[in-house]
Design goal:
Number of helices: 18
CATH class of the largest domain: Alpha Beta
Bound molecules: NADP nicotinamide-adenine-dinucleotide phosphate
CATH superfamily of the largest domain: NAD(P)-binding Rossmann-like Domain
Helix content: 40-55%
Protein name: Homoserine dehydrogenase
Cofactor: a metal cation
Pathway: Amino-acid biosynthesis; L-threonine biosynthesis; L-threonine from L-aspartate: step 3/5; Amino-acid biosynthesis; L-methionine biosynthesis via de novo pathway; L-homoserine from L-aspartate: step 3/3
Largest sheet: 6 strands, mixed
Distance between the termini: 20 Å
Order of helices and strands: HHEHHEEHHEHHEHEHEHHHHEHHHEEEEH
InterPro entries: Asp/hSer_DH_NAD-bd (IPR005106), Bifunc_Aspkin/hSer_DH (IPR011147), HDH_cat (IPR001342), HDH_CS (IPR019811), HDH_short (IPR022697), NAD(P)-bd_dom_sf (IPR036291)
Number of strands: 12
Organism: Novilysobacter erysipheiresistens
Amino acid sequence: MKAVAVTRVHTRRPDAIAAVPAASPPARVALLGTGTVGTAVIERLAQWAGTPLGGGVSLVHVANSRRAASATLGMAPREAFRVMQNQPRASRLDQVPIVLHGDGAQVVVDATASATVAERHAEWLAQGIHVVTACKLGQGTGLAQWRRIRAGCLRGNTTYGDSATVGAGLPLLRSIRDLRAGGDRIHAIAGVLSGSLAWLFNHYDGLRPFSDFVREARDAGYTEPDPREDLSGEDVRRKILILARSAGVELESNEVDVESLVPATLASLARDDVDAALPLLDTPLRERFAAARKDGCKLRFIARLENIRDGKGDARVGLEALPEDHPLAGGAGTDNKVAIWSDRYRVQPLVIQGPGAGAEVTAAGLLDDVLRIVRRRRACRSGFNTR
Ligand SMILES: NC(=O)c1ccc[n+]([C@@H]2O[C@H](COP(=O)([O-])OP(=O)(O)OC[C@H]3O[C@@H](n4cnc5c(N)ncnc54)[C@H](OP(=O)(O)O)[C@@H]3O)[C@@H](O)[C@H]2O)c1
């Protein structure tokens, strides 16, 4: 019986879910967050209806911060969203383990930007609930919380799916972990980790005011509604922390040196006053752009992790003037681009590049992580261990 399962999984890889024993129940999934990313998750799940992929996942709970809909036997994704919107009752995180209870892997998909939800990750993992997240507030903040998440995985024998937290599903974290699993030590990491800042510096030409580009990026949905969140470098701080910790460098948040692009006056304003004050960005950035161009360089917002030794390293985030032919100076649109140096990539780094923001790629990254959990569980049950 086991030998048959092994052969079929190997020879029909894309249909691996269908090829493992049908007795395995689908994963029970609770989706938290129905904003830009959550809606794209619902759409992707809806497109899987009637396919082997869809057969691996049962959506039993959908919630935003106000409402929730649950069904023990699972719901059609678009219908679940519609039902949720018409629910009179409030959404409560305490409900989540209760509605997930049943046969099959239990998975929370966190498509929120909520610290309250992120604080539950470790507890759910320890209870045997897998967590798949686009939110960086779980493992991109304090080291203590990151350690609680690791401990939760060990205690509950569960997986923390974090592919969508950095690079919106690009194989960054996976590559770092695979290198380390193969005995490599990571020497350094450097890259463009923010889709919105990548877009801004790919487009800024020093002619039109920088604030015009910020408004354009915000209106296109590339930045957060308050663009100071991107321009402050805080989002990139969280991403380099997540990459560093996956590389075995357990940095505390304040050990990353972050250069904010937001002048103090702009930083102190109430949110409603930000738009009118965006021109405060213009002069400093025009000067930096002109100085870079004089040296034949391009401005890029770069995160770096260097001097790695004994589990420690130097991390910094900020604007750099890079020669035009520098490996990190290229790219287009909202592309992320990350270079990884390790024992085997000592001189020429491994470079991973691609769209690092956007609802569709992020939703795909989240659901890839869910499917990995489904595959691993089913393979374990059939006696064939795979990743
Ligand atoms: N957008 C992207 O391209 C992208 C790329 C990579 C990663 N991410 C990350 O993905 C996450 C979601 O981003 P987004 O753009 O989809 O944000 P969004 O449009 O603001 O949606 C956030 C959703 O989370 C819900 N929420 C907040 N607190 C909640 C709670 N306690 N329980 C259940 N739901 C709750 C909100 O509910 P209400 O509707 O009731 O407010 C909303 O539906 C963020 O962490 C973001 O950093 C986004």
